[in-house]
Description:
23 helices
Amino acid sequence: xxxxxxxxxxxxxxxLVYILNQKIGDIPPLGKLLDPFHGFWQNxxxxxxxxxxxxxxxxxxxxxxxxxxANLIPHIFSKNDYDLYFTQxxxxxxxxxxxxxxxxxxxSGRISELFGERALNYDRLQRRKGLNEATEKAIKALQxxxxxxxxxxxxxxxxxxFIDQLEYKDLxxxxxxxxxxxxxxxxxxxxxxxxxxxxxxxxxxDLQNTNLVRIFGxxxxxxxxxxxxDEIEPIIPVGTPWDFEPLETFSPDSEEVxxxxxxxxxxxxKEGIGSNNWAVSGKKTESGxxxxxxxxxxxxxxxxxxxxxxxxxxxxxxxxxxxPGVPGILLGFNDSIAWGATNADRDLRDxxxxxxxxxxxxxxxxxxxxxxxxxxxxxxKIKGRDDYSDTVVYTHYxxxxxxxxxxxxxxxxxxxxxxxxxxxxxDYKAFYDLSRAQNISEALAASSSLDCPPQNFALASRSGxxxxxxxxxYPLKWEEQGKFIMDGxxxxxxxxxxxxKEHNARIINPERGFISSANQHPFDSDYPYYYHSRxxxxxxxxxxxxxxxxxxxxxxxxxxxLQNDNYYSLASSILPVMIDSxxxxxxxxxxxxxxxxxxxxxxxxxxxxIEPSYFRAWYKKMYNLLWDEFDVDVPVExxxxxxxxxxxxxxxxxxxxxxxxTEDVESIKDIITESYTQGxxxxxxxxxxxxxxxxLWYKFKNTHLTHMTGIGSFSYAQVPVGGYSGIVxxxxxxxxxxxxxxxxxxxxxxxxxxxxxxxxxNPGSAGYGTFIEDWARGEYxxxxxxxxxxxxxxxxxxxxxxxxxxxxx
Length: 809
């Protein structure tokens, strides 16, 4: 009997071990995961400097020395460029391997492999955008620049050297949770990451615009969504002369806005997002040296999108940040120049309605002829079920993204995408060359390699020059071309080439002593080429320019204050009108008390204030009542905050104030009073859900840093930071300043930086959220920028990488 019981216990134990090591649904193989010697416990690292490198690597040509600061920022000192980029890839893989590979899964439409069928629609959309084919073109184009391509290849070699020495216990935690193994890294993945950035920063609204015109008519559309509002403060100051002869464009007699209402398209547009950069010349600074500032605003995810480091070889000495998976430095400085960037969005993606001969989609109509399509079978692997095959039809414009089989509701919905990101480009070369530029002229020339995503580059040099260039590959279009769906059968709707790069808007050493961009209009309507976008920002730019214009003897501390400025310009412009239009008779005591608070408010949106919470609750209710006619069953763009401000302050009798669904014709007073009551009620509801707490601004807006997979225990909620969309510190719920950098280019470069995260991508590491608290408080770390390696430096960890063959001999 004892033997029988022993035999049964062995069987049960064996069965438990077998079950725990199988992947069942979304449950990871718990046996491996919970193994204290190899599972997730191995990822709990108390010391963020627990590097655990193999110090001898076969691929190295010479020794490489690394100095790690306590905050985990590496300074790589190499004797040649191959070893420099190899080591960068090796280090990046050590700290961010899962993140860099996960980004490529997202970009290439492979998320279903990890999360199952629920991710299928997303993967289909990514495949249909044509990013994979565009990356293949980019690889071929970059190979025409051998030295640049070598850096990408060396980086890949370094990543693979790290992967090759991994054991299960060393895997980043997410691989263990989702039970898969890292793939080999290839240059394709680095360039795919850049193409994904182009997608993430794009905001075309052609399909929504088409719906708006069909619903409201062209006149109302133009009134609410003008290309150039009456009052703008562009990046390139008004009145700047254009010293070139523009290319001519042919314009058809008319463009018919055609197409049935389109439904179900994904909508990722965020109102008021963007970035800031500026540079001030020495004549406005206390030191007499130029200062450059940059704070790109991106999604607040963990691990954070940036990784900071210094790269030093005989050919380069630069510090800055890059995106995991992309070699080099994307934003930063070297011995001679500093550069920062904001998104220079324009309508770079156009949609063409395709008329197929039949349901087989083998031919489509164009110019009175039938052209043949090409088809690409996309095989999508899905966790837990059979592969899914999706046929993507290609026209000469580009892929047919939306059709009967994907998000279309009728045979008429066949929309092909033409996009500058589809072109063969060498975008990475721009940053490779920027890192080596020695003056403004070389920096401007370097930036010209960037096609997509276009950027507003702010530049400053050690010699005192400052410049701004709106850089990208912009289509040459006739007036309003691409604002709406276009007829794919008519050759008149083709792009007519591209604006020459030397015609892109720029300014060097302006008289006012500073340059700046905050995603506002790049120029005024005098610019000789057609411009259209839906991402312009008209509050941050005014605040930045007003402060810089009024400032003298500017210091680095002044720039820190400006980057963290929480002045709510929208509220200062609109709240007095709202208060004046509010019917105060009949208000309850609580409502009157809140009103008194708002009347006395200084318009600052600091983390510990309650006034911005009450304003935002009121404004949101007012906005929804004002624009209720936009609450329709098809995708449309809603008017911007800037347009809302204009309507309230200049057009108080506009038809927008009439609420649909009521018999009465409401006035501005009706809208304002009703929304005020609703806003107070929404705050009270929030308080009930939060144990009666005061609606402190940071709690109410809930700035949060979310792990890329959404795992709550790897995320941070209610980060105590102020700001909001449309504020210089544009930190909203899950979007904000992703990397604050300030560089003063004196005899000795002084630089400061911060981002909301940490260098380590391991949630179990002390280096995972190193900078979050300081970032929320508006503090920075001082950037160490060293000319060469010095083993006597205090407070650093010195690591030596050597060629393996030399060690063995």
